[in-house]
Amino acid sequence: MGKALSVARSTIENEKREEMEKSLRMLDFMETMLKSKMESFTNSLKHPSDDTHQVLLGTIVDQVTEYTLNATETSASEVVNRVIDHFLSKDIISGFKEVITYAVHAILNNETIGESYRQEYYLLIEHNALVRIDILFYKYEFGSNGITDQLQNIFCYMFYKSVIPTKKVDHNLLIYTISKYINNTSEHQPHNETIKKYIKEWKDFRKDLEADDNDKEDTKSDNNNKQDTKSIDSKSN
């Protein structure tokens, strides 16, 4: 009887060991796959395909990449909202959170086994600059039992913020984005004159910066000319 129990115990331990090793291999595979998804998403932003209808990515100024296990709509929304609080200024957070909460709701309520994702981008005005927010939500659902009894899904999200040169943006889209920003930060519907005033202030601000750049270039050119003159005089002597 003792031998039979020993064999049974050994069989159970081997089964558990095999199950554990299988789970670990699956987790390693998932980690590799997540890294691949993140790299693919990042590359698609830094090297976009030719698409005249898409607003090009600007200079990336901030990014967040995280993943969590056994995500629920509530837990994921709380984490993502904290990221948004860090990621954006207060005057545009409220409306943006509503949009993101809907995206989180859609992907986490999709119970299809396997992978699902949402990739979106938004144009916003922040700190007097045109900003593009790129977001990837990715989830892998393992099914009712999961890899183990404790793991049902993996949820990953990436946020990228970049500043867009306004010269690359269609004028109609720029006017729409500015109007939307003024509307969201004002109690009243923006009047055309208000929009024009904002655009003029924006242009004046840019002109000041361009004038400063031109002054620096002129100074640099003058210094180079003086250096060349000194070299010529030195050779003459």
CATH class of the largest domain: Alpha Beta
CATH-defined architecture of the largest domain: 3-Layer(aba) Sandwich
Q: Please state roughly what percent of the residues sit in beta strands, choosing from under 5%, 5-15%, 15-25%, 25-35%, 35-45% or over 45%.
A: 15-25%
Radius of gyration from the CA trace?
28 Å
**First-residue to last-residue Cα separation:** 111 Å
Main β-sheet, spatial strand arrangement: 1-4-3-2
Average pLDDT, rounded to a whole number, is: 72
Shape: elongated
Order of helices and strands: HEHHEEEHH
Provide the domain count.
Answer: 2
Q: What's the total helix number?
A: 5
Tell me how many strands there are: 4
Task: Write structural notes for this entry.
- With 237 residues, the chain is an alpha+beta fold.
- It has two domains: 2-168, 3-Layer(aba) Sandwich (Delta-endotoxin CytB), CATH 3.40.198; 173-223.
- 58% of the residues lie in helices and 20% in strands.
- It is built from five helices and four strands.
- The protein has helices at 2-46, 73-87, 90-108, 171-184, 192-236, and strands spanning 59-69, 114-126, 129-141, 153-163.
- Strands 1-4-3-2 form a four-stranded antiparallel β-sheet, with helices on both faces.
- Helix 2 runs antiparallel to helix 3 (90-108).
- The radius of gyration is 28 Å and the shape is elongated.
- The termini are far apart.
- Residues 211-237 are annotated as: Disordered.
- Residues 217-237 have a biased composition (Basic and acidic residues).
- This is 9348_t:CDS:1.
